[in-house]
């Protein structure tokens, strides 16, 4: 087809509409007032609306809110500039069916280069995602890597809870990816695109955590030279992620409880009551029920934050994900540094599959970064791995199949884990109680 003939075909509006109607992607276009002026056949199939339902109407009015969820750039007024954007979101069709779509948004300019509207194209991947999940072929979801059955269950849980604003509490060991899961829930929800504000509650002293969370007014204390918004205000319309929530003092827990009940608080030193609409996702590597028994955590707050509990599996319980995680991190290194992609030898992989990974995915990532720096060839060998991985098999083999502990093996494990008994027990392949009983019987071990 010649260029002239093609120009002639698409210059006719009806021909152009026929072409767009035969695409396997939904297409919606609206002007700067959010008035929809194009809506193709696939968009109608996916959303359940007809052209007569939508043409000439405000996009937000048609879809009972922004179709793009929190990613929408037109929530208040037309932006001065909109960049191309791609993301996945969940929608509910007119007949109530949940759908997952991959969306691409781009700005439209006229012949003079003036921005006049937005073109949104999208495809329905609901059936494909469900098919992959059922077949165990899904290897990632919302930037989380894994194909183990426990991870597939986690992906489904993230997808299910994203459509609601109920508080979520994530429990998982250090390095299991609690913030990654919280961010995925946020991005998959209608709040995706709005602020996601994380704070590590255990990283700040008590005299700072209150102002970080709730802000302060000028003159509230020495050094408060101006008003400051807290994390809750910054998260308005979005999600606040409270990591290590178990470390909050009882005083801060009371203020947090009030926010969860009423959605209000006052800045430190202030008298004005501030109302914020933010979803609360919390996380901890401690068992909060045990913390309640120790009088460290309020039971009424526990029941407020634990509406939807999510438990993350440690890496040692999903060892079949180790190879694809290795592949993912090696590819990341290629994209970041531009060097040739490395591979892992069978012997090195065997060591990594045998290692219990007490630091979970974070430790695996760190180990690969160490190996990449040390590796002098194209293949990572056992000697390129960190010492604790190379030595772990020797340490655990000393215990024997009947788990008869030897003093030297326990000493070596405690040394490797800097005295951390929980991690040492995992490294030895025994329960923490077993290790404690052994240490009680061998008081000569430091």
UniProtKB/TrEMBL annotation:
<feature type="domain" description="PAC">
    <location>
        <begin position="85"/>
        <end position="137"/>
    </location>
</feature>
<dbReference type="InterPro" id="IPR000014">
    <property type="entry name" value="PAS"/>
</dbReference>
<feature type="domain" description="PAS">
    <location>
        <begin position="12"/>
        <end position="64"/>
    </location>
</feature>
<dbReference type="Pfam" id="PF13426">
    <property type="entry name" value="PAS_9"/>
</dbReference>
<protein>
    <submittedName>
        <fullName>Sigma 54-interacting transcriptional regulator</fullName>
    </submittedName>
</protein>
<dbReference type="Pfam" id="PF00158">
    <property type="entry name" value="Sigma54_activat"/>
</dbReference>
<keyword id="KW-0238">DNA-binding</keyword>
<keyword id="KW-0804">Transcription</keyword>
<dbReference type="GO" id="GO:0043565">
    <property type="term" value="F:sequence-specific DNA binding"/>
</dbReference>
<dbReference type="Pfam" id="PF25601">
    <property type="entry name" value="AAA_lid_14"/>
</dbReference>
<dbReference type="GO" id="GO:0005524">
    <property type="term" value="F:ATP binding"/>
</dbReference>
<keyword id="KW-0805">Transcription regulation</keyword>
<dbReference type="InterPro" id="IPR025943">
    <property type="entry name" value="Sigma_54_int_dom_ATP-bd_2"/>
</dbReference>
<dbReference type="InterPro" id="IPR058031">
    <property type="entry name" value="AAA_lid_NorR"/>
</dbReference>
<dbReference type="InterPro" id="IPR002078">
    <property type="entry name" value="Sigma_54_int"/>
</dbReference>
<feature type="domain" description="Sigma-54 factor interaction">
    <location>
        <begin position="144"/>
        <end position="373"/>
    </location>
</feature>
<dbReference type="InterPro" id="IPR000700">
    <property type="entry name" value="PAS-assoc_C"/>
</dbReference>
<dbReference type="InterPro" id="IPR035965">
    <property type="entry name" value="PAS-like_dom_sf"/>
</dbReference>
<dbReference type="InterPro" id="IPR009057">
    <property type="entry name" value="Homeodomain-like_sf"/>
</dbReference>
<dbReference type="InterPro" id="IPR025944">
    <property type="entry name" value="Sigma_54_int_dom_CS"/>
</dbReference>
<dbReference type="Pfam" id="PF02954">
    <property type="entry name" value="HTH_8"/>
</dbReference>
<dbReference type="InterPro" id="IPR003593">
    <property type="entry name" value="AAA+_ATPase"/>
</dbReference>
<dbReference type="InterPro" id="IPR027417">
    <property type="entry name" value="P-loop_NTPase"/>
</dbReference>
<keyword id="KW-0067">ATP-binding</keyword>
<dbReference type="GO" id="GO:0006355">
    <property type="term" value="P:regulation of DNA-templated transcription"/>
</dbReference>
<dbReference type="InterPro" id="IPR002197">
    <property type="entry name" value="HTH_Fis"/>
</dbReference>
<keyword id="KW-0547">Nucleotide-binding</keyword>
């Amino acid at each position: 087809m010649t260029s002239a003939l093609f120009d002639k075909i698409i210059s006719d509006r009806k021909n152009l509409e026929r072409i767009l109607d035969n695409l396997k992607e939904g297409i919606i276009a609206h002007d700067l007032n959010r008035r929809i002026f194009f809506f193709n056949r696939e968009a109608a199939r996916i959303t359940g609306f007809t052209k007569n339902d939508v043409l000439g109407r405000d996009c937000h009015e048609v879809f009972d809110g922004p179709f793009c969820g929190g990613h929408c750039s037109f929530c208040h007024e037309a932006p001065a500039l909109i960049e191309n954007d791609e993301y996945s979101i969940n929608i509910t069709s007119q007949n109530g069916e949940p759908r997952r779509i991959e969306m691409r948004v781009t700005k439209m300019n006229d012949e003079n280069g003036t921005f006049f509207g937005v073109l949104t194209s999208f495809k329905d991947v609901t059936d494909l995602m469900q098919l992959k999940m059922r077949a165990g072929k899904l290897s990632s979801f919302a930037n989380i890597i894994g194909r183990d059955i426990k991870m597939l269950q986690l992906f489904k849980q993230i997808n299910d809870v994203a459509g609601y604003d109920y508080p979520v509490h994530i429990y998982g060991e250090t390095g299991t990816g609690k913030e990654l899961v919280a961010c995925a829930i946020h991005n998959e929800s209608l709040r995706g695109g709005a602020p996601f504000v994380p704070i590590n509650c255990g990283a700040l002293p008590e005299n700072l955590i209150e102002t970080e969370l709730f802000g302060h007014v000028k003159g509230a204390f020495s050094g408060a030279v101006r008003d400051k918004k807290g994390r809750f205000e910054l998260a308005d319309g979005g999600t606040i992620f409270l990591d290590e929530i178990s470390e909050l003092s009882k005083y801060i827990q009371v203020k947090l409880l009030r926010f969860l009940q009423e959605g209000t608080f006052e800045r430190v030193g202030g008298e004005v009551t501030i109302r914020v609409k933010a979803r609360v996702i919390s996380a901890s590597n401690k068992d909060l029920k045990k913390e309640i028994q120790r009088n460290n955590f309020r039971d009424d707050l526990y029941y407020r934050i634990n509406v939807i509990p999510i438990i993350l599996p440690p890496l040692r319980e999903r060892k079949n994900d180790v190879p694809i995680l290795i592949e993912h991190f090696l590819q990341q290194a290629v994209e970041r540094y531009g060097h040739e992609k490395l591979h892992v030898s069978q012997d090195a992989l065997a060591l990594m599959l045998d290692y219990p990974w007490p630091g979970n995915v974070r430790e695996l990532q760190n180990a690969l970064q160490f190996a990449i720096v040390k590796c002098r060839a194209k293949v990572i060998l056992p000697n390129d791995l960190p010492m604790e991985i190379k030595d772990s098999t020797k340490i655990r083999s000393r215990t024997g199949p009947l788990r008869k502990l030897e003093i030297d093996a326990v000493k070596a494990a405690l040394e490797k884990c800097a005295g951390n008994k929980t991690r040492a027990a995992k490294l030895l392949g025994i329960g923490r109680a077993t290790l404690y009983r052994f240490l009680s019987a061998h008081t000569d071990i430091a």
